[in-house]
Structures are given as structure tokens and as C-alpha cells.
Write a structure and sequence with these properties.
The structure holds 3 protein chains of 3 kinds. By secondary structure, chain A is α/β, with parallel strands linked by helices. Chain A contains 8 helices and 10 strands. In chain A, helix 6 links the parallel strand 7 and strand 8. The termini of chain A are close together. By secondary structure, chain B is of the alpha/beta class. Among the domains of chain B are: 283 residues, no CATH class; 53 residues, no CATH class. In chain B, 23% of the residues lie in helices and 33% in strands. In chain B, the strands form 3 sheets. Chain B has a 10-stranded mixed sheet, covered by helices on one side. In chain B, helix 3 packs antiparallel against helix 4. Chain C is of the alpha/beta class. In chain C, the strands form 2 sheets. In chain C, strands 2-1-5-8-10-12-14-16-18-20 form a 10-stranded mixed sheet, with helices on one face. In chain C, strands 3, 4, 6, 7, 9, 11, 13, 15, 17 and 19 form a 10-stranded mixed sheet that branches. The longest helix of chain C has 20 residues. Classes of the chains: A alpha/beta, B alpha/beta, C alpha/beta. At the B-C interface, strand 22, strand 23 and strand 24 of B face strand 19 and strand 20 of C.
Chain lengths: 264, 506, 449
């Protein structure tokens, strides 16, 4: 368990979370407990198939998974009772491992609609087109994205790296309180990795928490987490500080598999 | 009686529709299955009427209900005024249904009690065709990895003459016999399922078949049984002016599995012969039937004279949940082929597959395809059809995919590709797609082209002659389908393709 | 066929009255009308009986069983209304027909001085008549098509667009067919003849719009001839009332190296059929046929496209997209024939459909008949709902399901709309498309948490 400092305020509280694949009923998460406080960066690591991707997707409300037990509280609210779009408007952002292509949907219009949906939720008027355009261009520039690409359809014909940069552009524009990064480092070359990491680091602060999921320690070389958790077979097997990531890098995951279920 | 020794010397180890070890001499012959067996046959007079139906039924010692069913089918057929279906893209002179013998059978005393009693002439015929209706004996020196065993039901003209490996099958409770025998052995099953997938009102030829069907194979795989060997029926038309009307019925009970093969040949005759079969398959919960066909009926000569009219209704009903029916066919024979092996996907999560190669050469015509009718939830169908047209051949893929409102999350994927060789042939694609459920997903792709010049040149540059180059490319084009066939059948199919392509290039 | 007699009687009675109303009928036109009425008396309207492959999925019984009166009295409509309903640009050559009758007051004056003729078929000079006579009724086969036959029987006003060789830099030609509000269900017979001279370039837009809201019947016929090297951008807008009936028959004949690019948009109508036949009659002829259709309620839209590759080196590319809601039904029937010796043919065909509701139904039949060997032909079809993972992706960006679906549906349609090069029409359609988007229900495969 991540230790919580008494003065800190919890943003995300996961309690005894169990979830299964909706279509098949196969259980993936078998009782996850996790607390992320305001301003903290947590990394969830683990072997393939351990459920780490499932965890962030369940938090975001992906319908492919069904929660069978447990609770998720976000800023004191019952997150599981909310539809996925409501969660997004409350400030939960998921950077997808495999961003979806939206044929015929333009990135600019899509993001403006998103930003407006968030603003409306907060009782703010729609953002002016000119103001938004400036934000959009700045984000595209920051993520070193080819501006011409952003005139096409969302993610359509984008390379793996371009898709991930586009996720970061969206993160920049939507300014979430909780960013869930699902294997954001996979498929990135070193330059893209640095850009993405810089984007995340820039947005670290007392107002934002990050829960990032990664298989390798690589990303953690650029984004230093406050806490590292190891997920094995649907449960958190081990939690610790940033040094845990290095330990895993050296020792791999196998030694944990034997002791899975004896989470400390 | 041919001495056993002699038969065993000739023994072939796997069913062959053509010989796998074809010599160049074999290849030079246009259709090497075209011989006629001189055998005494009992033939009832030409013509179609109630009396003929009664004679057939009497000869088969059928129960009253079956005769009644036949008669109903006949009345329905006659009510259609001999108007053959017109929608298929095939043309032929009108068929005189009164000028056909509806029953022909090799003369025999009582039915053969064992293989030893089978007329040696017949054994010889099937041996010549490469069909082992002698059970395989384990000979010294044959290793365990030897060719797999196959149980064969041999149908000569209208009559099943021998079914092998009965004992092995009986131990598992599997029934594999002729339909006439099944009517006696398992009357309840036959009565329950006969016509349940293809009712006699289904279409013109199904009505005719229901009235006059003479024999065919019956398979019942009991609950939870995986049929340990492949089952095969080999159809042979021999008599002249004889229609062949078999009826095949295969039932896979809950959790059962069977792989069934079918091969067909006929002698060379100047006039066309009618073959109108019906095949019905039923799978109950978690059952699977894999049905493979190598169709090599006599295709007619190079001028388009003679050849078999192959008007067949094949349909499976995936009745049970999680059940699966898979059709694989390689069609190189027949003057005209009219057949659409179909699957009614009724059980939830059931699967239907159709893999087909249809080759037409000279004046052959093929209008073939499939129907996938999705009724159950999460049903899935795959259609892969490859058509090859050469000479003056006309090949049509006609497929229907129907997703009913009840079929939530149904998926279909269809791919049909046609290759053209020469500028006198035709290749046509007519898909009928109906989707009535918004959660369904249907994808259809098709292409038509000639063998690519680039591919040809590449092969020529590697030293292949044009004919070999075409064969290599076309074989590759069909590989995905051959892959679905049992290994030895796939080898045969590939060879059959080569023979059928003879003389198409240059 | 006993019902047919009474139906036919009605058209017959109107035809007799119609003939009397023609003050000075030209002999050749009268002959054509007579032939039309005779064909119609034999053919009537097609029935969806077994074996009638062309009408297998579209039952025109509701048209055949109703009475539609010929509009003898010309209605007058308000110019502002017409401009509001249809795409409109004063810079275009606009010809307006109300219930099939030419409305001079609403139309741009005919252009006929030493150049193209763009005007009413019924007001031709002797030379114009001679030109029209060469083609009118010569391309569409009224002897085989009951709808074209009855249109031909009542031929009078119509659009005649004759472009001389090399004509270019013409303003877009806009033909507007308005159904007016009439006291009884009426029929209109729009008629179009386009003869594009060698190497001419033109843009043509047909708009079918309505002021009526009940049942009426539009039975249009268009004949388009592209001579050598002619290039035509063709657009067709169908925006009929929900209870209306619309049958449009378009026959295109293409000569050497001509290009026909067509984009159609179909919305509304209880039963509508867009029947297009393109004959690629010389080497180098190419056609690009795109369509977008939108149905809801219990509407039925049928796109029936026939392409004949008659000569070598011809190209056809069909691309259709449909969006279906409620209990509506759409039919796509593409029949591409590559005739014997029409080598080097290139033919593409695609029909993609989005099903938005449980009761919606699509029948798609992209068929190919190939009698030559050196060809490259492909066709494809898809049907399904909006992609569920895309919905979730957009939800994760804060958009609700309805908005997300709307974006996806728009994105789906955009591919066709974006190809419209006529700005006034594209802008009109971008707005009208959104405005006319059917209500949808998104049904998830999975039960969300």
C-alpha cells in the first residue's frame, strides 16, 4: 500500500477492486487496493497479463470490463457510478495504450468539443475559437507534432509514436486532475519518449496526480514516480519508492510471481 | 472372387480422387476416371411418377412414413410444372425429367454381409479409382506414421455398396452407413432430422431428390464422441441416362466431432447426366462437423458435350450453442455446378465456415457460393471463395449473408477472389447481403483479375515454363482453401487443379 | 395484374387531357409521347415478383396503388422559399421547375446566344429542337422501364443543357425541381437532357426539394451525353418530404476520354430510388459515382447503379455510404459489367453502412460480371454500428454518447461530402446533413460498469 501522509488529501481511492472481462467473465483484477493523493505520481508495474492496463481502463470506465466487487472513490465521489464521459469531465484522463482512429473526425474540432464539454460541466461558457486555436497550436508545438497531421482525422494514418504524442496533446488541452497513462512509453523512440516525459513532468504539481502503467523501467528514467506498485496476477504484490523500479529492472518479475498473494 | 492377395497387392493407402503419383501419362489424359464398369445392373424404366417412387421405396423396404414423405415431395415437385430455377447464371437445354432412370443398382442377391461378399468387379472399380473399400491391413514394415485411416462408404450409381471400418466405429457408438440402412437401424433419428434442414419444399431439385432419393450416407456421432477416423463417401455414377439422387444426413450430437469427406467421379458419356443430391447436417450444442468435398464429376469434353449436371442442395443447421459447421469444397468437375453449401446459425455462439475453390475450363459453368443465415447471438461466419475461370468457362460466386434482428453481435467476413485465364471465359460475383441488427459487423471484399504479369515474369525468370508458372501461382491463390482440407485430400486437390488446368495456357 | 388496369386508367385519362392541353405539339414529340404511353400500358410499374431481380428489394406497390394527379394548373411558389430550401447562388445558372413545369420567373434567363443553350426544353428554337431531337428519349430505354415510359408520355417542360465543343468557364448549372403544396397527391415528371460537346467542362447540380409534406410522386428522367473529352461534375440532391415517392432514372453515355464525376445525396421519401446507368462506350471513359444516403422512420432508399464497360481502357469507381436509423431500409445494388473484349477495365465498387437502430435494415449487393480477362475489379461492402471503442475513446475525452455518435456519423459522411467541389453545395450539405441527422440509439455490446 502506498503510505499516505496525514496532511495529504486522497484523490483516488481504490478498495478491494475486482473486475472481469465483460464478454467472457474472466477475472483480471482480483482485489486491488491503492490510494493516490493529490499531487502524487504513482507507477504501476508488472508482468504482461498482470492486469495493470485493466486497472487504469476500469478506472476510466471501459465497457469491456465489468467491476464485480470493490469501490473506487475519486475526490470523495463514487467513480464507478459515473458514465465514462462524466468521469472525463470530472478530470480523469486516460492516455490510451492503443489510441482509437476516428475516421472523418478532425482533431481540432474533436478537442474543442472535449474542452467545451469540460467547461460546460464546470459551468463555464464555450471557449472562443481563437483562444482555443492558440492553445491547440501551442500543445501541438510542445509535443513536436507535425501540424499538417493534425488536419487529418484523429489518429488516422498516424504512426505509433504520433498517436502517443497526440494523446499528450489531448492531456495538455484537457488539464486533468488525474492522468492515467497506459503504457504510454510503448512504441516510442527515444526522442518521442523524452518529449512525452517532459510533457508529463511539466504538468506535475499540487493540482495533478498521475497513475502511470508501464512494463519497463525505461519511462521511469524520465518521470520519477513518488511510489511504485507491482501488480501480479490481479493484485498489488509489492509497493515501494522509486528505487523499487530499479530493483525490478535488475531482478525481473519472476521472483514476485511465487510470492503473489502475499502482498505486504 | 478376386483372391484377397491380389487385392491387397493393389491396396492403396488413402482415398484418391486422382492418383497422387500421377505420371505425365496420366496428366495427358483428359479425364482418367472416365471408364465404364461392365456390371449387371438392375434399372427401373425411365420416367417419374408415383409408381416409380413406390417401387424405389419398396425396393428399400421403407416404412410407410417415408413413402408418404416421398409422395408428398413428388406432388410438390410436379406442382412446379418442371420449371427449373432460372436465377442461376448457367444455361443448358431443358431437362426431360421423364427421360431419366430414377433407380439403378448393381444386381446382387441379398445385401453384402461383409466386404468379402462385395462384387469383385465393384471392388476393382473402386480400386481403379484409388478408393480403398478394403480395410487397411497393417502390413509388416508399415510404420505408425503411415497414412491415416479413413472409413469409406462407396456409392455406386444410386446404391451404397460397401462401408468400411464398421467395427471401429460401432465401438464408439458411431453410426456410419447408407441412408437406407439407417432407416432400419436408427429410424427415430432419421425421421426426426430427414428434411429438417432442407425441406422438400426448399427448391426444385430438393423436391425431386426427396421424392426419388435412392441412397447416400448417414452419420450419427453420439454425445461427447470425437470420431477417431475420417469418414468418406465416394460417389460414382456408372449407368447411362441415370440420375443420381443421394441424400446425406449427418448428425453430431452434443459435444461430438466428425470430419467427413466426399469424392465423386463419373464415366465419360456423350450425353449429360443429372446429379441432384441433398446434404443435411445438424450440430447440437458444442458439436462440430467438418465437411470436405472434392468434386470431380465428368466435366464434358472440350467442346462442351456431355458432363454431369450437378444440382446440389447442401445445408447445415448449427442448432446447438457453440456448435460449428465448416464446408470446404474443391470443385473442378461437372459440366454445370449449382450448389450453395449453407449454414443456418441458429444456436448462440455458433460458427459457420465456407472455403471454396471452383475451377471452370472448356465450357464448364459453375454457379456456386454459400448462404450464412445468422439467427443466434454472437454467431460468426467466414466465407473464403476462390474462383478460377479458363477456356470458355463461366464461374459465378453467389453468396447470401443474412443477419437477422435477433443475431446480436453477429459477425461475417467474406472474401471472394476470381482469377481469369484467357479472354473467352467469365467470372462473376453476386453477393446478397442483408443486415438487420446494428450490433452486427459485416465485411465483404472481392476482387477479379488475371494472373499478374509481374508474378508470371518472376516465375518465368526463375526458370518455370508458362504452364508451370500458372500452376504455381494458381496453387498459391488456392492455398488458403487447401489448408482447410485434411492433408491427403489437400494433396489430391492440388493435383486435381493441375490436371484441370491442362492446356489452358498458350 | 387486375389492379393495374384501374391505375393505368388514371394515367390514361390524364394523358388524354394532357394531349389536349398541348396547343401546338410537335410531331416528333407527340410520337415519342405516344410510344411512352404505349410502353407504359404494357409495362406499368414493376412488381417485386420472384425473378424480377432488379426490383427484388424495392416494392413500388405503394406508388402503383395510389392515384397521383397530373398538375394541370401550374402553382406559383415564392422565390425566397425556393432559395431557402435548395442550395442557391445567384451566380449560378438556375433553372426552376415547379411540379415539373418550368418557372421562368424564378429562373436565370436562358443562355443561348452563340454558345451553350441552358434552358427549357419546351421553348427551343428550330436549331435547338434539332439538337434535342438527336438525343431526347434515345438513351433511356422507355420500352423496358415503366417509370421512364410514363415520364416520356408526359414530356413537355424540362432542362436542356447543350454545351458546345470546348465550352469551359461556365457558371455551374443548377436545376431545381420543387414539389409545391397541392390539394391532392400529384405527380411531377422532371426531364433533363444534357449534351456536353467535345472537351467541354461543366458543373451540373440537380436539386429535388419540396414545399409539400404529404404524399406526392416525383418521376424523373435524365439523359446525359458526354462527347469526346468532356468532363462533368454532377451533383444530385434529393430532399423530398418524408411521405413522398421519388424515382429518378439517369442514363449516362460516355464517349472517348470523357469523365463523369457524380455525387448524390439522398434524404427523405417513403420510397426513393436513384437509378443510374452509365455506358462507358469508348476507350478512356471514366466515371466516379459517389453517394450518401440517410434514412429514418420507415423510409426506403434504393440506389440502383449499373455500369457497362463496353470498350477497353475504361474506369468506374462506385463509392456509396449509408446511415440508417429507426425502422428504415436501404438497398444498394451495384452491377458492374465488363463486356467481352473490354480489356484493361478498372472497376471499383464499395458500399458502407452504419446501422443506428435495431429495426434498420440494409440490403447490399455489389455485383460484378466480367467477360474479359485483363481487368482489375474490386468490390466491397460493410455494415455495422459505430465502433464501440471509438465511442469509449470519445467518452474518455468527456463527450457524451450522443455527441460521440454524432461525431462518428459525421465523420463517416464527411468522406463523401468533402469530395464536393462546388462550394455552395458542399456548404449547404454540411449544414443540412447535421440538421437532418436521424435520431439514433446507441446499444452497447457490453454492459458498462
Amino acid at each position: 500500500m502506498a503510505s499516505t501522509n496525514g496532511t495529504k488529501q486522497p484523490l483516488l481511492e481504490v478498495r478491494g477492486l475486482r473486475a472481469a472481462v465483460t464478454a467472457t467473465g474472466q477475472e483480471i483484477l482480483k482485489g486491488v487496493d491503492l490510494t493516490v493523493n493529490v499531487g502524487e505520481v504513482h507507477a504501476v508495474m508488472g508482468p504482461n497479463g498482470s492486469g495493470k492496463s485493466t486497472l487504469v481502463n476500469v478506472i476510466a470506465g471501459r465497457p469491456d470490463f465489468a467491476v464485480t466487487a470493490g469501490q473506487v472513490h475519486y475526490a470523495g465521489q463514487d467513480l464507478l457510478a459515473m458514465l465514462p464521459d462524466r468521469r472525463a469531465r470530472e478530470g480523469v484522463f486516460l492516455a490510451f495504450q492503443y489510441p482509437v482512429e476516428l475516421p472523418g473526425v478532425r482533431p481540432w474540432q474533436f478537442m474543442k468539443a472535449s474542452v467545451d464539454a469540460l467547461r460546460k460541466h464546470r459551468g463555464l461558457p464555450e471557449i472562443g475559437a481563437r483562444e482555443f486555436d492558440a492553445m491547440f497550436k501551442a500543445a501541438v508545438k510542445e509535443m513536436e507534432m507535425d501540424a499538417d497531421l493534425m488536419k487529418r482525422s484523429v489518429n488516422e494514418g498516424f504512426s505509433g509514436g504520433e498517436k502517443k504524442r497526440n494523446e499528450m496533446i489531448q492531456l495538455a488541452l484537457m488539464e486533468p486532475r488525474l492522468a492515467l497513462l497506459d503504457e504510454t512509453d510503448s512504441g516510442l523512440d527515444i526522442d518521442a519518449l523524452k518529449t512525452v516525459a517532459a510533457g508529463v513532468n511539466k504538468r506535475r504539481g499540487p493540482e495533478r496526480s498521475v497513475l502511470l502503467v508501464t512494463h519497463y523501467q525505461r519511462l521511469l528514467g524520465y518521470i520519477t514516480p513518488d511510489f511504485v506498485h507491482v501488480l501480479v496476477d490481479g493484485r498489488i504484490a509489492l509497493s515501494g519508492g522509486p528505487e523499487l523500479a530499479h530493483e525490478l529492472e535488475a531482478k525481473g518479475y519472476d521472483w514476485l510471481k511465487e510470492s503473489a498473494g502475499t502482498a505486504r | 472372387m478376386v483372391p484377397r492377395q491380389a487385392l491387397e497387392a493393389n491396396l492403396v493407402t488413402a482415398p484418391k480422387v486422382i492418383s497422387r503419383t500421377s505420371t505425365s501419362d496420366d496428366l495427358a489424359r483428359e479425364y482418367k476416371w472416365g471408364f465404364v464398369t461392365e456390371i449387371e445392373s438392375e434399372i427401373i424404366p425411365k420416367g417419374l411418377n408415383e409408381e416409380v417412387v413406390r417401387i424405389i421405396s419398396r425396393k428399400k423396404e421403407e416404412p410407410e412414413w417415408l413413402l408418404e414423405w416421398r409422395l408428398k415431395a413428388l406432388r410438390h415437385f410436379l406442382s412446379l410444372n418442371y420449371e427449373e430455377p432460372k436465377w442461376a447464371k448457367v444455361s443448358h437445354p431443358p431437362i426431360d425429367f421423364q427421360d431419366i432412370h430414377y433407380y439403378a443398382a448393381p444386381v446382387k442377391q441379398a445385401g453384402p454381409k461383409s466386404l468379402e461378399e462385395v462384387d469383385p468387379q465393384l471392388l476393382e472399380t473402386f480400386n481403379k479409382l484409388g478408393i480403398p473399400i478394403q480395410e487397411q491391413k497393417r502390413l509388416a514394415g508399415v510404420t505408425e506414421e503411415g497414412p491415416s485411416k479413413v472409413a469409406v462408404d462407396a456409392v455406386f450409381d444410386s446404391i451404397s455398396v460397401a462401408t468400411t471400418y464398421q467395427k471401429t466405429l460401432e465401438e464408439k457408438g458411431i453410426i456410419f452407413c447408407s441412408v437406407s440402412e439407417a432407416v432400419k437401424k436408427a429410424p427415430d433419428i432419421v425421421r426426426k432430422y430427414l428434411g429438417s434442414v432442407v425441406p422438400y419444399t426448399d427448391n426444385f431439385y430438393a423436391a425431386l431428390n426427396s421424392a426419388v432419393f435412392s441412397d447416400g450416407s448417414f452419420v450419427y456421432i453420439p454425445k461427447g464422441v470425437r470420431c477417431p477416423i475420417e469418414l468418406m463417401t465416394y460417389f460414382r455414377i456408372n449407368s447411362a441416362n441415370t440420375g443420381q439422387f443421394e441424400r446425406t444426413l449427418i448428425i453430431a450430437d452434443e459435444g461430438a466431432y466428425v470430419s467427413y469427406l466426399e469424392g465423386c467421379t463419373a464415366p465419360i458419356r456423350k450425353t449429360s447426366q443429372l446429379h441432384a443430391a441433398v446434404v443435411e447436417l445438424v450440430t447440437l450444442d458444442n458439436a462440430e462437423i467438418k465437411y470436405s468435398t472434392l468434386q470431380n464429376w465428368y466435366p464434358g469434353d472440350k467442346q462442351g458435350n456431355g458432363g454431369v449436371y450437378n444440382f446440389v442442395t447442401k445445408r447445415g443447421k448449427a442448432l446447438g450453442k457453440n456448435s460449428k459447421i465448416s464446408w470446404t469444397q474443391v470443385e473442378t468437375g461437372s459440366a454445370i455446378t449449382w450448389k450453395y453449401p449453407s449454414v443456418i446459425l441458429q444456436g448462440d455462439n455458433s460458427t459457420g465456415e465456407f472455403y471454396s475453390v471452383a475451377l471452370v475450363n472448356n465450357y464448364q459453368q459453375a454457379d456456386t457460393g454459400t448462404k450464412m443465415i445468422h439467427i443466434g447471438k454472437n454467431t460468426k461466419s467466414t466465407i473464403v471463395a476462390k474462383g478460377i475461370s479458363a477456356g470458355h468457362g463461366q464461374s459465378t460466386y453467389r453468396g447470401q449473408v443474412q443477419i437477422m434482428p435477433t443475431a446480436d453481435n453477429a459477425t461475417n467476413f467474406t472474401q471472394c477472389d476470381s482469377l481469369l485465364i484467357g479472354d473467352k471465359c467469365g467470372a462473376h460475383t453476386v453477393p446478397y447481403i442483408e443486415v438487420r441488427n446494428p450490433t452486427a459487423r459485416m465485411e465483404h471484399e472481392a476482387s477479379t483479375s488475371k494472373v499478374s504479369d509481374d508474378q508470371l515474369f518472376y516465375c518465368l525468370q526463375r526458370g518455370l515454363d508458362p504452364e508451370e508458372a500458372h500452376y504455381v501461382i494458381i496453387n498459391g491463390f488456392c492455398r488458403g482453401i487447401f489448408k482447410e482440407l485434411p492433408f491427403e485430400f489437400a494433396m489430391e486437390a492440388s493435383q486435381l487443379l493441375r490436371v484441370s488446368l491442362e492446356g489452358t495456357v498458350g | 395484374m387486375t389492379q393495374t388496369a384501374t391505375r393505368y386508367d388514371r394515367y390514361q385519362a390524364d394523358f388524354v387531357h394532357f394531349q389536349k392541353s398541348l396547343s401546338n405539339g410537335d410531331a416528333w414529340l407527340n410520337e415519342m409521347r405516344q410510344a411512352g404511353v404505349e410502353s407504359f400500358s404494357k409495362l406499368c410499374f414493376p412488381t417485386a415478383i420472384r425473378g424480377n431481380e432488379d426490383w427484388r428489394f424495392t416494392n413500388v406497390g405503394p406508388i402503383a396503388n395510389r392515384q397521383f394527379a397530373y398538375p394541370f394548373e401550374q402553382a406559383s411558389v415564392d422565390a425566397a422559399q425556393v432559395k431557402a430550401l435548395s442550395p442557391w447562388d445567384d451566380g449560378w445558372v438556375n433553372l426552376v421547375f415547379v411540379d415539373g413545369r418550368f418557372d421562368q420567373g424564378l429562373s436565370t434567363p436562358a443562355m443561348n446566344r452563340k454558345g451553350p443553350y441552358i434552358g427549357n426544353l419546351a421553348a427551343l428554337s428550330a436549331a435547338g429542337q434539332a439538337a434535342a431531337r438527336q438525343h431526347l428519349g434515345r438513351h433511356v430505354d422507355a420500352a423496358k422501364n415503366g417509370f421512364a415510359a410514363v415520364n416520356t408520355a408526359f414530356v413537355r417542360d424540362g432542362a436542356f443543357v447543350a454545351l458546345p465543343d470546348g465550352a469551359a468557364d461556365l457558371p455551374p448549372v443548377h436545376l431545381v425541381f420543387v414539389a409545391s403544396r397541392r390539394p391532392q397527391p400529384s405527380v411531377a415528371y422532371p426531364r433533363i437532357l444534357v449534351v456536353a460537346g467535345r472537351n467541354s467542362k461543366a458543373t451540373l447540380l440537380e436539386s429535388y426539394v419540396t414545399l409539400a409534406d404529404g404524399a406526392y410522386f416525383t418521376d424523373g428522367v435524365a439523359e446525359v451525353i458526354l462527347q469526346e473529352g468532356a468532363q462533368m461534375q454532377h451533383y444530385r440532391l434529393m430532399r423530398e418530404a418524408a411521405e413522398a415517392f421519388h424515382i429518378g432514372t439517369t442514363q449516362v453515355r460516355q464517349e472517348k476520354d470523357s469523365t463523369f464525376t457524380s455525387i448524390s445525396f439522398a434524404r427523405g421519401a417513403a420510397i426513393a430510388r436513384n437509378q443510374l446507368h452509365v455506358a462507358l462506350d469508348a476507350p478512356g471513359a471514366s466515371c466516379f459515382i459517389n453517394g450518401l444516403y440517410l434514412t429514418d422512420g420507415t423510409q426506403h432508399i434504393d440506389n440502383n447503379i449499373n455500369i457497362d464497360h463496353l470498350k477497353p481502357h475504361t474506369t468506374s469507381d462506385l463509392y456509396f455510404k449509408g446511415i440508417l436509423a429507426d425502422r428504415s431500409r436501404a438497398v444498394f445494388s451495384g452491377r458492374v459489367i465488363v463486356h467481352k473484349d473490354a480489356q484493361k477495365a478498372y472497376a471499383l465498387q464499395s458500399d458502407k453502412n452504419l446501422l443506428l437502430s435495431d429495426g434498420a435494415r440494409i440490403n447490399t449487393k455489389p455485383s460484378l460480371e466480367i467477360y474479359a480477362d485483363d481487368v482489375q475489379c474490386k468490390h466491397g461492402a460493410t455494415a455495422g454500428a459505430v465502433a464501440e471503442e471509438a465511442i469509449f475513446y470519445m467518452q474518455a475525452r468527456g463527450l457524451d454518447v450522443e455527441t460521440a455518435t454524432m461525431y462518428l456519423v459525421q465523420g463517416f459522411a464527411r468522406e463523401v461530402i468533402d469530395q464536393i467541389k462546388l462550394d455552395g453545395f458542399r456548404q449547404y450539405l454540411e449544414l443540412y446533413f447535421i440538421e437532418s441527422l436521424p435520431k439514433y440509439q446507441f446499444r452497447s455490446k457490453n454492459q458498462g460498469p
